[in-house]
């Protein structure tokens, strides 16, 4: 008897070197890694996912760490993100310490921010020392690169390289708001362990805007069906795109079909400098 579709889907996910979380509140989506904002979080998605991250709801000033942690228990979520503030490492540090103290049995993902004087690497070291003063070891947590959702992909990858170089392989790195695209596929394939996790809303945007990603991670126009019962078609197309990305970064892709070199020459030079 031939193996069913679910076997091959799980193989693609299990063998991908990076966990790609989808930032969505589409309850009918069948995908194992999900990130949700507190105000849009879904118990249905949390229940059917393999891992569910409850985000900080960044930009929603009405939310507190207490709100996030309480909602994480209701879902329940596997991980929570403290109430970080974009471009504000100091306030973010205070929120991280507060959340770590509160979240006894819930994993905390520690976000890093930067401003004109502090890089994310600087923030990592200052947070490491601050947490240590309260008896916590930062290497026990996943750390995350925050505040780069709207940054060019080149900037996102440079931030990942800088942080990975600083922490070596001692800690897991999550990339918040990372688009799934050609350059990220190349970066992940070239540098095994550059990042461990990412989350993206790109899939939702692609399908809703009438486009899809092909196996070479090129955006193509794709006119979707409209009308009654078409919502499930949009959801299935998002699932296909997510699995396409997982396949592209994993060991099963035909290397003739996936991008293997950067378009950006500066990224090529950066990776060559590091031996990749």
Question: How do the strands and helices of this protein lay out in sequence?
Answer:
Elements: H1 5-15, E1 19-23, E2 33-36, H2 43-48, E3 51-54, H3 65-74, E4 79-80, H4 89-102, E5 107-112, H5 120-133, E6 142-145, H6 153-167, E7 173-175, H7 182-190, E8 197-200, H8 202-208, E9 211-213, E10 219-221, H9 231-249, H10 265-273
Parallel strand pairs: 1-2, 1-8, 2-3, 3-4, 4-5, 5-6, 6-7, 7-8
Antiparallel strand pairs: 9-10
List keywords for this structure.
single chain; 276 residues; alpha/beta; TIM Barrel; 8-stranded parallel barrel; 10 helices; globular
What features would you describe in this structure?
There is one protein chain. The chain has a single domain, classed as Alpha-Beta Barrel (TIM Barrel), CATH 3.20.20.105. 41% of the residues lie in helices and 14% in strands. The chain contains ten helices and ten strands. It has helices at residues 5-15, 43-48, 65-74, 89-102, 120-133, 153-167, 182-190, 202-208, 231-249, 265-273, and strands spanning 19-23, 33-36, 51-54, 79-80, 107-112, 142-145, 173-175, 197-200, 211-213, 219-221. The strands form two sheets. Strands 1-2-3-4-5-6-7-8 form an eight-stranded parallel β-barrel, surrounded by six helices. Helix 8 packs across helix 9 (231-249).
What is the strand content?
A: 5-15%
Characterize the overall form: globular
Question: Would you tell me the overall average pLDDT?
Answer: 93
CA(first)-CA(last) distance: 42 Å
Full CATH superfamily name: Queuine tRNA-ribosyltransferase-like
DSSP E strands, number: 10
Order of helices and strands: HEEHEHEHEHEHEHEHEEHH
Proportion in helices: 40-55%
Oligomer: single chain
What structural class do you assign from the helix and strand content?
Answer: alpha/beta
Largest sheet: 8 strands, parallel, barrel
Instruction: Provide a count of the helices.
Output: 10
Strand order of the largest sheet: 1-2-3-4-5-6-7-8
